[in-house]
Amino acid sequence: MNKPSASSAWQLLVISLPSNRATPRMRVWRALKGLGAAVLRDGVYLLPHSLSAHAAFTQQAQEVVRSGGTAQVLRVDVPEAGQDRQFRALFDRAGDYARIMQDARKLKSGLSPRRSAAALRTLKQLRREFESIHATDYFPGPAAVQAGELLADVEIALAAPGEPQMQSGRIPRLNRKDYRGRTWATRARPWVDRLASAWLIRRFIDPKARIVWLRDPNRCPRSALGFDFDGARFTHVGARVTFENLLASFSLEDDKALLSLGALVHYLDIGGVPVAEATGVEALLKGARESIVDDNKLLKAASRVFDHLYIAYQSR
Predict the structure, then answer these.
(1) Is residue 273 a contact partner of residue 135, using CB atoms and an 8 Å limit?
(2) What is the residue range of 245's domain?
C-alpha cells in the first residue's frame, strides 16, 4: 500500500451486506483489516487517500456487490485540521510498536547460549510482527524507528551460532546439468529455508540428489555441496535467503510459482513482506517437525506441502 501524501484527503468505503451473508462479510472484513483500514462505524471504513487505497477499496466494493450488498467508494477532503488529526489518530500504531519493544527488551535481557535457539524463534516472530505493523503504518513516527532499531540490536546481540549470516556479492548463473547426481549437505533438524531448499534441489535442480544432514556444519564432506550455513556453497546473499539464492543461481526466477514460494520462505525465515498463507504453512511445518524425528522423513512430509503450494501458486 502506498504511503499517503501530507494532504488531508481520505478514502471512504461504505458497505452494506445482508445479515445472512456471514461468509462474504467475514472475507471482506479480513481483507480490510489486512489493509489497516480504520473503522468509523459499522460498514464505514477509512484509509488515507492514495491510488492504491482507492484500488483496494474498489476491489472490496466489487466483492460486496457480487455478494448481494451495496458499496460506495468516496474521496473526502478534510479542510479542518482538527478533524484531520482525529482521522490520523485512528492509524496510530505507537501502542503496537511499544508492545514489540517490550517483548524485544525482555528477550534481550534473557539472552544466553543455552536459550539461543528459542530466542532466535522469538526474534523472528517479533520481526514478522513488526513488518506486518509497519506495512499498514501510514504515518510512521519515532516509535517505528525505535522499534526497528531495537530489533536490529537484538539481532546483533543474538547472532546465533550455525545460522547463516547474510553475505554480499554477485550470484553467478549456473548450469543445472553440472549439478546432477551430487551430494548436498545442510544442517540437521531443518526448518523452512532448509526444507524448501532441499525440496527445490530435488524437484528442479538435481532429481537424484542425496541430502546429508550435518550435526556440525564444520564437518561438511569436501565433496558435498553445502547449503544454508555459513561458508556453504549456497546460503544467504544480500537480501536473499538460501531458497532465493538457489532460484537465482539456477535461473529459476522466471517461474512465478517458485517466486511466490520464495516470498513465503523469505517471510517465514527472516521476516519481511507478510504472506497471507504463511501462518497456515508455518503451523503445518511446525507440526511435522515436532512429530517426525528422522530428517529424511521430515523432508518427505514437507515436500508434500511444497508440492501442493507450488500447484496452488501455478493456478493463480
Answers:
(1) yes
(2) 176-314
3-state SS track over 15-36: EECCCCCHHHHHHHHHHHHHHC
Distance from first CA to last CA of the chain, Å, rounded? 21
Which residues, including other chains, have CB under 8 Å from residue 10's CB and lie 6 or more apart?
46, 47, 48, 49, 75, 76, 77, 78, 87
Give which of 241, 242, 262, 240 is closest to 253, Cα–Cα.
262
Interval 21-80: pLDDT, tens: 788 888 898 999 989 999 999 999 999 999 989 999 999 999 999 999 999 999 999 887
Residue 11 phi/psi, 5-degree rounding, is -110, 130
Give the C-alpha separation, 2 to 131, whole Å.
15
Same domain, 137 and 224: no
C-alpha cell at 295: 530428517
The rounded Cα 49 to chain-centroid distance in angstroms is 26
Q: Are residues 194 and 251 in the same domain?
A: yes
Residue type, 260: S
Whether residue 168 has pLDDT greater than 80: no
* Rounded Cα distance, 234 and 251, in Å: 14
For residue 215, give the 3-state DSSP assignment: coil
CB-based burial of residue 150 (10 Å sphere; 0-12 exposed, 13-18 middle, 19+ buried)? buried
In a domain, 2, yes or no: no
Spatial distance between the Cα atoms of 149 and 104, rounded to a whole number of angstroms: 11
The answer on 276 and 188 residing in a single domain is: yes
**What CA–CA distance (Å, rounded) separates 123 from 154?**
8
| Residue 191 pLDDT | 95
Span 247-275, pLDDT tens digits = 999 999 889 999 999 999 988 988 777 78
